[in-house]
Amino acid sequence: MSLYRYIETRDQLEIMIVDLVLAKVALKPPAAEWSDAVSILAEEMRRALTAHPATATLVVTHRFTSANGLRWAEALLTALTAAGLTGKQRYFAFRTLVGYVVGAFQTEYTVPFPRETAALPAELRADEFPLLAENARDARRVGFDDEFRYGLGVVLDGLAHSVRRSSKPRGRL
């Protein structure tokens, strides 16, 4: 039995896989502040992605061609709109958040990291690269969940600052 009797192209198959991976992403966060809604949506997307790490490349490639990827994007834009963001500001905020969520996922599952390459700091001369060696030691004590939440908090704090600043009269974006 040939798979291509049921599916016309490889792209169609890949999109179906991504749709399945993203099918369980909760899209309606409980009534909350916009930043809480964005945080929940980001955590939900990460949960779905980390449940299927082998799909990393497919998700990155097809996140906006799968129906469930588009639904998540719409929910994220809805939360950003609730923050009062429109136009370029909303676009920039959206791209920043998508870049962070997808980038953190890729870093966790596809990029070698000092946690996994503990031998790297041993090869470094601590007198020549003291901060890099220290950072690598610290990285081994940090979990990816904490790292993701910390980074998401930094992004959300920056967006909150931008939202507050945009409510004041100023020049063009």
From TrEMBL:
Keywords: Transcription, Transcription regulation. Residues 29-161 form the Tetracycline repressor TetR C-terminal domain. InterPro entries: Repressor_TetR_C (IPR004111), Tet_transcr_reg_TetR-rel_C_sf (IPR036271). SUPFAM superfamilies: Tetracyclin repressor-like, C-terminal domain. It holds the Pfam family TetR_C_1. This is TetR/AcrR family transcriptional regulator C-terminal domain-containing protein. It comes from Yinghuangia aomiensis.
